[in-house]
Design goal:
- The structure is a single chain.
- This protein is an all-alpha fold and 226 residues long.
- The chain has one domain (3-159, 217-225).
- 58% of the residues lie in helices and 3% in strands.
- It has ten helices and two strands; from the N terminus they run H-H-H-H-H-H-H-H-H-E-E-H.
- Pfam families: PHAT_SMAUG, Vts1.
- Keywords: Cytoplasm.
Length: 226
């Protein structure tokens, strides 16, 4: 198969994924690029986004802890939409804003598990939070505890959240997000070190008797940082 055909196949898969799945896949690919490639991609992205005032406004909102704290009074559906839209734009080092997100996420997840609503959105929120460079090991460990609960809720509803993978795609190699203390190995970027991955993540989908190991909730969120 020629290179352009390979790119076409990859683009076809990419188009069929939702925005969160696309993000996790891109993070996986970024794990494999050299420092020079990473800088070139950064230049391209910064150039293309320089005049995007709408994104600049959204980014300002996403990093405003006072505004985020006001979302507590919104209906659950509205909170989920707001967090999904803004969390990816959280800047590493903004501990106040991150703390507000970390207060909202357990409320959203608890509501989902109790009522069985918004399972897909909750799965995406967990995935974003687990690969986000702004979250600490402590944050990720706390969030990882929700994964099995979310899987169990999906299984109880009989949901099949996992779409069949493309051929030869099992070795996805999904990597971690851009960590504050990146290193390099053989000219390539190192993302999350093993010490920053919560041990709880390795038990996702292994609950006794439940056939949930292929559940998209666990697959996307767990492999996002493995």
């Amino acid at each position: 198969m020629m290179f352009r055909d390979q790119v076409g196949v990859l683009a076809s898969w990419f188009k069929g994924w939702n925005e969160c799945e696309q993000t996790v896949a891109l993070v996986s690919l970024l794990k494999r690029v050299s420092r020079t490639q990473a800088r070139f991609l950064q230049v391209c992205l910064e150039h293309s986004l320089a005049e995007c005032t709408e994104l600049q406004v959204l980014e300002g909102e996403a990093n405003n802890p006072g505004l985020i704290s006001q979302w507590q009074g919104e209906p659950k559906e509205r909170i989920i939409s707001l967090v999904l839209t803004h969390l990816p734009l959280l800047k590493p080092g903004n501990t106040e804003a991150k703390s507000e997100y970390m207060r909202l996420l357990p409320r959203i997840l608890a509501h989902t598990i109790e009522h069985g609503h918004h399972l897909e959105e909750s799965r995406q929120l967990l995935s974003y939070a687990l690969i986000h460079p702004a979250t600490s090991l402590e944050d990720r460990s706390a969030l990882a505890l929700w994964l099995n609960h979310l899987e169990e809720r999906a299984a109880a509803r009989g949901d099949s959240l996992e779409r069949p993978p493309p051929a030869n795609s099992r070795d996805s190699g999904i990597g971690g997000g851009w960590h504050q203390q990146q290193g390099c190995e053989n000219g390539h970027l190192l993302l999350y070190p093993s010490s920053s991955v919560p041990a709880t993540i390795n038990t996702v989908g292994t609950g006794g008797g439940s056939n949930t190991s292929n559940d998209r909730c666990g697959i996307l969120a767990a492999t996002a940082i493995s």
